[in-house]
Amino acid sequence: MIKPQTLKGFRDFLPKNSTLRDFVISKLKDTFESSGFDPLETPALEYESILLGKYGKEGDKLMYRFKDHGDRNVALRYDQTVPLSRVVAQYSNDLPFPFKRYQIQPVWRADNTQKGRFREFLQCDADIVGTTSLLADAEIIRLASNCLDRLKLKNYSICINDREILQDYSKDIITTIDKLDKISVDGVVSELVNRNLVKTEVEAKQLISGLHEKKMTERLEQLWTYLQKFGLDKNHLVFQPTLARGLDYYTSTIFEIKIAGYSAGSVCGGGRYDDLIGMFTETKIPAVGFAFGFDRLIEALTEQKLLPILETNSTALVIPFSNTELDACIEIMKQLQTAGINAELYLEPDVKLDKKLKYADKKGVPYVVIIGPDEVIQKTATVKNLKTKQQETLPVAKLPHAIIQS
Questions:
Q1: Which residues fall within 8 angstroms of residue 171, CB to CB, at 6 or more apart?
Q2: How far apart are the C-alpha atoms of 348 and 326, rounded to whole Å?
Q3: Shortest CA distance to 384 belongs to which of 309, 311, 316, 308?
Q4: For residues 335 and 19, what is the distance between their CA atoms, to the nearest angstrom?
Q5: How far apart are CA 304 and CA 260, in angstroms?
């Protein structure tokens, strides 16, 4: 017998979890599309050369890479920004510019698993490609903020910086500075010294304190103005000169969103990457975007009790008391579905009623519609709310309206 188990860092989502995830995804999609962003999908596998060398040394180490059956070097999608860049270069003649797209698909990283960190996880991206306008940066940040507002998250901070502030530092120093929130100042100081990026702890502390004293660039000052014109609450906006964003491809604006009380890290990160697409085409094509860490978003929503109770997509279970009422139940099920109500038929008419009700309760169906011999004769239905335990018998014709109203 084969032991049923999942790989470490990979998960199954049973219907109760998957239904909630779909709820959040629908909110994000609605928000993206309300601002003119269209969906894009890319393959799980890319040629290794497409992905390798775009994320820095640490990113390359975490990438799932292997040879396929055709002896080609391939890799699983590490993020969605590099595949987007490949798409833009490959289909540039077919796309409108500025190109506004969103993408909600899984990515894979061979990372150490911990709270909010998995090896297969969903990313939700939105990007604007083909313009250097600072309005695009402002719209992207506004869009991320709108998503959190739509999900009723209140206490969040949008931490913003400009990579220009970090231009005098090496990539290794930038990726180490990026860990300030994860391993604290002392941890970053130790790493800077241990990796010989600075000579002494004093020099490391001076480097960090010097970053804290940096002022906004003119670009960030203009961005702040645009964000306030877009209606963002200034209490959400934070200038954070130590924010680094570890990925190599960022060029100017960078930002992360953190939720007060959520300890696993930022739930969103992004910025401007004007040179990345140019690695796939002779033409320089600027871009700006962000990605939500979907699992972290779900965790934060769960901790703050902002997710509804959604155990199933079914609204009503139509139960025949016995096989005799089957035809009537099928017609009622069809009537409910035509009215836009998610309804299903209990498929074993002759089992005891108690078993049928236990099935509905375990699945989380809010309503059962019970049809017995009297209901068939009188053309009525008995509707029971499994949450409140209240029930009533009413004409079949009024059944859809009664369920919708309740």
A1: 56, 248
A2: 10
A3: 316
A4: 24
A5: 10
Task: Judge contact between 192 and 204, C-beta under 8 A.
Answer: yes
Tens digits of residue pLDDT in 181-199: 788 899 999 999 999 999 9
Average pLDDT, the chain: 93
Only one residue has tokens 């009622």, namely: 332
Of all residues in the chain, what percent are helix, strand and coil, respectively (each to 5)? 40, 20, 35
- Give the CATH architecture of domain 15-303: 2-Layer Sandwich (3.30)
The span from the CA of 94 to the CA of 388, in Å, is: 55
- Give the C-alpha separation, 290 to 156, whole Å: 16
**Main-chain dihedrals φ then ψ at residue 208, nearest 5 degrees:** -70, -45
- Single out the residue of 77, 106, 61, 30 nearest to residue 293, CA to CA: 106
Locate tokens 């579905």: which residue? 337
- The CATH number for 316-405, chosen from 2.60.120.10, 3.40.50.1000, 3.90.1300.10, 3.40.50.800, is 3.40.50.800
Domain ranges across the chain:
15-303, 316-405
Mean pLDDT of 322-343: 96
For residue 283, give the nearest of 97, 121, 120, 153 by alpha carbon: 97
CA 41 to each of CA 87, 117, 296, 325: distance values in angstroms, whole numbers, following the listed order: 10, 23, 22, 46
DSSP class of residue 347 equals S
pLDDT(263) > 90? no
Contact criterion met (CB below 8 Å) for 112 and 274: no
Euclidean distance between CA atoms 262 and 273, whole angstroms: 28
**pLDDT value of residue 116:** 65
- Alpha-carbon distance of 400 to 19, in angstroms, equals 23
